[in-house]
Recover the amino acids of this structure.
């Protein structure tokens, strides 16, 4: 039995986003979902599960971390705290 | 104007970011409570809304709720996309490198906000292609405000302060919307909008302390953008077609007039600090109501602009169509590249 790797995302509560919790091995999506339920939600940790074939995930490379995210580093003006709010101006 | 107002009091010096963080905390608290439950689909849905919990994409929801959300989220997404044009108009003419970098970052954010919102709409079962088509063919609307021209550099300030300010007053309550993906997108958007409003305010503050000509330019921009900004809240409650149902569903949290009042109340003090005048002789604080009286915007003009007859409607849509068509080769090239490497 081939056993692919699946990444598991659980929505802990209604209203929150799915978050990555780990992975499981399973031969197909339906089995992956059941395995994920059995492994990751035994204590009602979630109300919804996504399983995604690990091979389908494209990830940024740790080696490139600096050059990949660098462009955002020198743009402090993207943050509201960059701007001085004059004395007395409220609700801004 | 409305009678006793339900609009939330402007809370002390509470900043926008505080309000967004409160909404985010409320979302987590509601999520932590026991899950609302009903016997059948409809009562289950009603219980979730009643408990201020979130409806999620795979939940059962009434068809009109789904349609209404698609309409509202799509219109909001389209507004972000069209909203890049009035400011894009000034990127090459920003008065300094600093201002240019900031304006570029702001227009980039608007593209990003459009994408977050399109993604939220897509969770409701409509495709990106359909949404783009609905905008380009005029079958879905975008905010009337973007059909006004940006005549001077001071307009960049007035748009940031007033237009983004009005958008924020509209949008902060949407961080509590009953549809999960929309509420979460709005939390992200509102955090970023704070920069937009502050940079606009800073532009006007700088101009208002500059030469007499610069101050006059700032005042002229405020004069032109004030009423269109008030009109952004939509028709008065008595004439608003969607408000009541949207409020019952928790898609919308306050009525148009209540939000408009809140915006006016906030702007008065901010204008004073700027040393600029809001163009309304009727503006005065009403002790009994606890709010400022003000002159309502021209709703006939609003209806006209929405119907397609504003100063820039044709220009905005034809520009978007042209940009979309001229970008076709990029989409095709990306597909060809993907196929080649598949």
């Amino acid at each position: 039995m081939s056993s692919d790797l699946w990444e598991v995302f659980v929505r802990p509560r209604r209203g929150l986003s799915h978050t990555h919790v780990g992975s499981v091995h399973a031969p197909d999506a339906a089995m992956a979902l059941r395995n994920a339920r059995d492994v990751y939600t035994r204590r009602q940790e979630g109300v919804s599960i996504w399983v995604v074939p690990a091979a389908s995930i494209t990830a940024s490379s740790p080696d490139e971390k600096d050059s990949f995210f660098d462009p955002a580093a020198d743009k402090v003006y993207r943050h509201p705290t960059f701007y001085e709010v004059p004395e007395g101006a409220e609700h801004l | 104007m409305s009678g006793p107002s339900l609009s939330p009091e402007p809370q002390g010096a509470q900043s926008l970011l505080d309000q967004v963080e409160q909404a985010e905390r409320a979302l987590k608290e509601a999520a932590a409570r026991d899950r609302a439950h009903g016997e059948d689909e409809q009562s289950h849905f009603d219980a979730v809304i009643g408990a201020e919990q979130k409806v999620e994409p795979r939940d059962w929801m009434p068809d009109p709720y789904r349609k209404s959300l698609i309409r509202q989220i799509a219109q909001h997404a389209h507004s972000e996309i069209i909203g890049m044009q009035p400011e894009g108009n000034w990127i090459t003419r920003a008065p300094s490198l600093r201002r240019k970098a900031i304006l570029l970052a702001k227009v980039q954010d608007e593209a990003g906000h459009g994408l977050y919102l399109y993604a939220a709409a897509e969770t409701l079962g409509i495709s990106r292609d359909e949404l783009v088509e609905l905008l380009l063919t005029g079958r879905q609307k975008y905010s009337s405000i973007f059909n006004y021209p940006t005549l001077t550099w001071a307009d960049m300030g007035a748009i940031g302060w007033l237009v983004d300010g009005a958008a924020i007053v509209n949008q902060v309550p949407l961080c509590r919307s009953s549809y999960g993906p929309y509420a979460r997108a709005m939390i992200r958007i509102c955090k970023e909008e704070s920069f937009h409003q502050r940079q606009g305010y800073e532009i006007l503050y700088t101009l208002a302390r500059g030469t007499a000509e610069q101050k006059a330019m700032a005042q002229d921009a405020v004069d032109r953008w004030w009423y269109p900004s008030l009109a952004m809240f939509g028709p008065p409650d008595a004439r608003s077609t969607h408000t009541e149902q949207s409020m019952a569903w928790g898609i919308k949290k306050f009525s148009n007039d209540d939000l408009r009042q809140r915006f006016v109340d906030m702007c008065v003090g901010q204008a004073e600090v700027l040393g600029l005048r809001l163009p309304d002789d009727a503006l005065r604080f009403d002790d009994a109501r606890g709010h400022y009286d003000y002159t309502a915007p021209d709703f006939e003009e609003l209806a006209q602009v929405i119907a397609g007859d504003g100063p820039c409607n044709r220009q905005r849509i034809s520009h978007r169509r042209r940009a979309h068509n001229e970008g076709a080769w990029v989409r095709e090239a990306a597909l060809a590249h993907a196929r080649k490497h598949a």
User: Anything to note?
Assistant: The first helix of chain A runs from residue 29 to 40.
